[in-house]
Amino acid sequence: MTQMKEALKGNITDEIKSVAETEGIDVQNIIKGLASGRIVIPKNINGKSRPVGIGKGLKTKINANIGSSSELEKVEWEVEKAKVAVKYGADTIMDLSTGPEYEKVLKAIIETVNVPIGTVPIYEAGITASNTKGAVVNMDGDDMLRAIENQAKAGVDFVTVHCGITMDLINKVKNSNRIMGIVSRGGSFLAAWILKNQEENPLFKNYDYILEIAEEYDVTLSLGDGLRPGCLHDASDVPQIQELVTLGELVGKARDKGVQVMVEGPGHVPINQIKANIDIQKTICKDAPFYVLGPLVTDLAPGYDHITSAIGGAIAAASGADFLCYVTPAEHLAIPNIDDVKEGVIASKIAAEAGDIAKGVNGAWEREVEMAVARKNFDWQKQFELAFDEEKPTKCRERKHISEQDMCTMCGEFCALRLVRDNI
Fold this sequence. Notes:
This protein has helices spanning 3-8, 14-23, 27-36, 75-87, 102-112, 121-132, 141-154, 167-174, 185-197, 202-205, 207-217, 238-256, 271-284, 305-319, 338-359, 364-376, 380-386, 391-397, 416-423; strands spanning 39-40, 54-55, 61-66, 92-95, 117-119, 158-161, 220-223, 261-265, 290-293, 323-325. The protein is an alpha/beta fold and 424 residues long. Strands 3-4-5-6-7-8-9-10 form an eight-stranded parallel beta barrel, surrounded by seven helices. The chain has a two-stranded antiparallel ribbon with strand order 1-2. The termini are far apart.
């Protein structure tokens, strides 16, 4: 029985109750959101994760991507990155491993952290085909579906499935004026397969079977945007929007089966197009939770893409996005290290908080007021406790010994707060 089906019956599950308590809102609001598909609680029946609610009226959530590759694989390193991501506020972890020991990485992460875990099963199918059949494009539909079921059995809470890529869309991309083409790795696996085999996407053709797997294990489907823009030039083009239309139809089918579903979005998007992208998705996909990567608002900041994505993420969250996938300083350059993961999570936390303030999400404004009072009172310890990263401001404060607590070295004796306080 899925969380959505329980909600449709009006049943208050332990997961529903937990999310209501965490969010500080009435349990009936969670039930209504789940029943309508506007909220999801990714929680595999075989999983060990704590319940996390994603969707309308809830705090904007943050995902951290980690994972090994064939070029760099250390199981213990990925586990440490997962722990650091959760420590600094990641609500979920996605394991995107494609190295030889990808199964060990996933198992270790599931056993180590207690947040919902997501994967992209097409990676498993591609790796297996590459090892046993000579190339990724030699996988078949059964390989793809088997990978989804394997991930579900392993206890994964949500899976990205690129069901919206079709033969027609691949032809449109070929004939478009895109610069970057297809930048989604999972999307490229399927596009290459379609081009080689001249057959329709097996994930699109067998979507009903995917729904059966998701229903059995209560795995939340995250409908992947395989044609997301990889640069500002490609944003909001016909292939991107047409894929979104297909995903909207698939959202409806999932809800009819009582399967939890959310939709993934771009990508690289100019600031002036972000709100429109959110509005279009919410309309076409019937208010399904929207999960966006960034979005990155300029392509000119390699090494600083955690900042470009935080700018876009704040606007996206304020405009209605529900779930932000972090971007690290290593984006487009290398596998992120532990410091990159920390910086990416904190940047995304900043974006989520800014969005939650704009949306009036429960608790966001109160935290801001609490920080303001602490600053007024020169309560440094309280400021550090409220900060997304307690360590950095603490070290900054300790750079130079200050004899008086009610000042810092920026203004010293000419502190504006002190001057007004001492003379009024």
